[in-house]
């Protein structure tokens, strides 16, 4: 049921961190991977890493806030492999800013990537999936779409991720007649190169870990099982669902 051989997967924000870890997991189960990212140098290194692991990988340089960039990546998948089976909308940004001081530019910087980018990535992948009458779209939300994080002020981020969770529900209903499943993953605090310094800071990471029943951050590889499950036939009757992977944070 977890076999992804002969299937193709788009991974946005796939050059590093959680995106690259999930690309490894999908590739280990047989998927052919298209990495979409803005950073050309890091993208090349990531693709080489996947290929060294025996995974077929291609790259597309682009920005999810520019719908044409995502469409170009999807078109490249269809040219190379003939189909689009899995779409992982992973690209995202996080910024802390007090709500009463936030500027429109700061708001747009978060919403354009985390919510608008996710929607139009899903749209670009859904078009060939509708023709195929099959496909799985996985949106990377956050536990921040379900709870309010402390002590950092991040209202815009939380709002964007709550929007992703609703997007997964809404599109799941709309696209179910076309054979497309849409789900979300809501990670908790995950240890990546970007988050490691914050996790090590007692004023932030200390609070976060105290509120996490497992008392540790997640490792990127620990999202692998979730994304493979939602991408594969193992979840063939699952749609509109948000799978929380957070060490128990949201149950507190």
Tags for this model:
252 residues; alpha/beta; Rossmann fold; 8 helices; 7 strands; globular
Chart the SSEs and their pairings.
Elements: E1 8-12, H1 17-28, E2 32-37, H2 40-52, E3 57-61, H3 67-81, E4 86-89, H4 104-132, E5 135-140, H5 155-175, E6 180-187, H6 196-199, H7 202-210, H8 224-231, E7 242-245
Parallel strand pairs: 1-2, 1-4, 2-3, 4-5, 5-6, 6-7
Helix pairs in contact: 1-8, 3-4, 4-5
Describe the protein's architecture and organization:
The protein is α/β, with parallel strands linked by helices. It has one domain: Rossmann fold (3-Layer(aba) Sandwich). 44% of the residues lie in helices and 15% in strands. The protein contains 8 helices and 7 strands; from the N terminus they run E-H-E-H-E-H-E-H-E-H-E-H-H-H-E. The chain has a 7-stranded parallel beta sheet with strand order 3-2-1-4-5-6-7, sandwiched between helices. Helix 1 links the parallel strand 1 and strand 2. Helix 1 crosses helix 8. The longest helix has 29 residues. The two termini are 33 Å apart. The model has no long low-confidence stretch (mean pLDDT 97).
